[in-house]
Specification:
CATH class: Mainly Alpha
CATH topology: Growth Hormone, Chain: A
Order of helices and strands: HHHHHHHHHHHHHHHHHH
CATH architecture: Up-down Bundle
Helix content: over 70%
Number of strands: 0
Radius of gyration: 21 Å
Structural class: mainly alpha
Largest sheet: none
Number of helices: 18
Amino acid sequence: MVFDVFDGVGKVGSLLESRLAMSQNSYSMRSAYGRLSLYYIAFFSVGGIVLPLWPRWLEQQVSLEFVGLVLGVSYWSKLILVPATSWVADATGNRKSILIGLALILLIGVVVLPFSQNWIIYVIFWGVAGAAFTSAIPLSDGITLRAQQTLGVDFGKARLWGSLSFIAFALLVGWAADAFGLDAIYVAMILTIAFLILASLTLPNIRTEPDKGKAPFFRPLALPNFPLFLVTVSLLISTHAGLYGFSSIHWDTLGFSNAEITFLWVIGVVAEVCLFAVAGKIIGRFGATPMIIVAAVGGMVRWTLLGIATSYFVLVFAQILHSLTFALLYMAYIAYIGKRIPPAISASAQGLYDSLSMGIFFGVFTIASGWLYQLNGSYSFYFMAVLSSIGFVLACILLVRVRRHDRLMAGGASQTNQPWDS
């Protein structure tokens, strides 16, 4: 009977996809760009609620001491979900169907939450739903990266529509929370998730050639310098754990309104959008690995400022540094993957990154930030500054090793003049 259910779900998914998808070769660059941009708009309409506002809603449902645990478990759950979805993506070459399924899991998990006041239920259901939401990132980025390689779609320009959506929905829902109460956050979550499901169905069905070696999840670790790259970028991106988990709560204790708090998030995303628009040229000029170093320096400054600042203007400046700590770092990561990872195992490489950064590191650092925040609201940010310092040292080592490797490779001198290098 169980197999009959899965078979039925599979037939329904295949029917929906067959009606909405075209073959990969039939997509124009404009069509693929439009569909991918729509998905990013939908995905980050949810993200505009999850990051700045969802902890505020959770705080009203469970006690503060459990908020970090609820959020942290959603990252740990990815240690199962991301490897599984990445393996299937490389083994089948199909990312779109998986993204549709993840959006449905997210909807089910969020719908269940209000029916219980037990924090354990929140840990279980948001643990799965939150993991399903963030597990979509490496898969959707994988489609966009492949569209860039095959159709000429500009990754940064497609992705920036998501950032603009984040701004719009964070402002709108932040205003609604001030006007109608925190329940507006939950209602907005349901509506935006429904939007995400529809956008997932319209994604371009751009596939990669299935890996004949059954796409072992850990195969990318055998590539030169990839393990060091993986740890470095994962550590630096996960320094945002304190920001995502507790900054809104911290700014609330400093006396800022929901609208002011949302504006701080918006400032960061505006800076992010500006960087995404020019990232290709910057990385083409200076290389991906040097930009990882710049992002690490930005983190050392940003997290220290967020720990000590009480002035709104200083907080605004610190949020502008999001352009370095997230946007520049993320585009450098994408550039490195696109240049140095074979397409047949790219989903596994991105899955490894997502598992380590948004799974292990983010889960541990979110819970650690929760404990530190209870001691002092600034301690969680100082902790992130220390982690950025470690990431800076690792990034410098990575740059030396990447350049040494390229010099040893045949034709390395010509390769180091190519865009999106080292």
